[in-house]
Design goal:
Length: 236
Amino acid sequence: MVDHRSIDVGGIRLSFQVSGPPDAPPVVLLHALGEDVTDWDLIAVALAAGRRVYALDLRGHGRSAWPGEYSLELMRADVVGFLDALALDRVDLIGHSMGGIVALLLAEDHPRRVNRLVLEDVAVPRPRAKTTPARPEGELTFDWDMVLAIRKQIDAPPPAWLERLGLITAETLVVGGGPRSHVPQDGVAELGRLIPGARVVTIAAGHLIHRAEPKAFTEAAGTFLGCAVEEGQQSW
């Protein structure tokens, strides 16, 4: 059963979903830019067979607060505050795209808090050509000001993000989406080389690996995390 909850962290309301046995080892799922907890529904159900699964709406997304102040460092601080508030001392982290950057920043600065780390289609944090995204029409489930702020950081990341990759002590799995992804796969491979001891696998499904190939992604992540996975998902 999935439980929908919210918690106050430093004056910011964070919404999350939790599932799986309460006494099972915890795993935290961090979504991509413009997504929310529902993006993890299939993966959460599968992992909940052997894990306590927490899927979090990052600030500016979904049902969490839209405070108007945004950065990847603030998102990292929110996640650390979330772990503290729930008394989760050490967790496994799975992060997709932007959520993967938040996860690796947390693993850099708080290595004691992260046991295993799964980074889904995340490239090494190097400067890239700047672009101006166009706002989608209609009502959004995320704060557009957040998108603009975060895209600026992803386009021009602080050098420390790259320099501190060697501080990550968590066992790490880097999952690339292959040639169909818009994320340069040489950057994904480089991230795997720079994180000590990281493993790199490719699931040629494009950027949205866990959505396009949920069975393959869950098997790869579940095997790496050493947890039981619920099989027989009808939508697979």
